[in-house]
């Protein structure tokens, strides 16, 4: 098979490129051991571990900024936004420690309390409407829940222990590739015995679960509502907890598999506090920037404004490097793609290098997204009817939370879901609102704030398979702002700028196929041994030397880093066999 380069473009191997990244004085070299496509957090983590393992590594990023969807951008002068990803929790602790991310500038603001759900109702006796505030102080949290149900207040600590038990048991599976099925079932006895080691994390998880294995199986396969209804009776609490079962996923709390999405969102930890979420100083871009500093300190080369057009395929059918959009070739022994499986195998890899059946399977991967992200600059702090601002204008504890709007009942969430399934942006959307500038003053001018609105459910295409227009986006933005206004009068008048990103915009700007924030749905048919496909769950593609290292591979989405770490270990292990 001939080296694949776009027709009409001269073959220009071994071309040095002058500085492509304002943060590095290093020029792009013509030859590396490993080239990584995309500087999302997983690609950067992979580069650090490959470099530590002795491989000369380069990371090539299409955009002007590092981080993939975990970026900080000054969209409106003076206002710095976590433009896509906006909270940190899932980053694996061993990566945090190995790469010394604190030393390299990562600072996190912990949130406590962490969840605020205001009601839309008339207050009684002149009092404000009710609200639900959840935090680490169980005494206060039980008092809050007790406003709606004393029974729920009593069992809530037991529910937290139940979730923590199941979440902790899954950690060994997050920190290792899936079981090596081909190794266990094919090849020599020696290879099969070697592959037995891949069972260790699965056995470890099973032992941790012990008698809780049935509970784990139920949670990951059942609708979240089946579990939540068994524990609780009050709608505001159930609906608030149910948001974690659908956030980022095109599903309903009443759909099978939504229980796993809930578990996925509570299995992280931050500063050794399990299940905690926090704001990164300067925005989420602080995460990839700290990883990049760590990787560079180890010797990795990282470049922005460097767009890869195609993976180079050698005469033997294996990956030999990449060709950039300007025709420059960068040769390497292996290539890792931090792009989605669709972008990797349908756009970057020459189609004649892939089996036809594999291409067909890639076409079946589900990337459906329900998410629109709206970033808003405001000139004053939102003032909620359920928790009015004080005379001093200072932020209250509820302002630092994930603020759940239109989450009074599961019925509201369900109605929003079904509208989205019919090509209509939800008329009463589920809104997760955060105001990180309450804890991080570096994000906005004095007295002003940045507001993140993570919204569901919005389709990729509107009714009639029609693409979004600017008018559609403005209309939906007005719908969202009208709902926020009902909870916090004066919000609309405080807006000084906005940035609306529909699923199609998330795809266009960040390369997220379908706008899916996880690089592919976190449904049961696309997890563990089947992520993204059963044939490539071990990060290796059908093209020798081409690997996946992004969230489209095991263990999935979120700013976790496990896929970058595991893929790097896979590459290093394969190098030892050469």
From TrEMBL:
Query: Which Gene Ontology MF annotations are present?
Result: oxidoreductase activity
SUPFAM superfamilies for the chain: FAD/NAD(P)-binding domain
Keyword Mitochondrion assigned to the entry: answer is no
Could you tell me the superkingdom of the organism this chain comes from? Answer: Eukaryota
Pfam families from the entry?
Answer: Amino_oxidase, NAD_binding_8
Domain spans labelled Amine oxidase: 270-562
Alphabetical GO CC annotations of the entry are: mitochondrial matrix
UniProt keywords, alphabetically: FAD, Flavoprotein
Gene3D superfamilies the UniProt entry points to:
FAD/NAD(P)-binding domain
Q: Where does this protein reside within or beyond the cell?
A: Mitochondrion matrix
Q: How does it assemble?
A: Interacts with COX5B; this interaction may contribute to localize PYROXD2 to the inner face of the inner mitochondrial membrane.
What the protein does comes down to: Probable oxidoreductase that may play a role as regulator of mitochondrial function.
Q: Which PANTHER family match?
A: PHYTOENE DEHYDROGENASE, PYRIDINE NUCLEOTIDE-DISULFIDE OXIDOREDUCTASE DOMAIN-CONTAINING PROTEIN 2
The family annotation for this protein states: Belongs to the carotenoid/retinoid oxidoreductase family.
Put simply, this protein is called: Pyridine nucleotide-disulfide oxidoreductase domain-containing protein 2
Upper lineage is: Eukaryota, Metazoa, Chordata, Craniata, Vertebrata
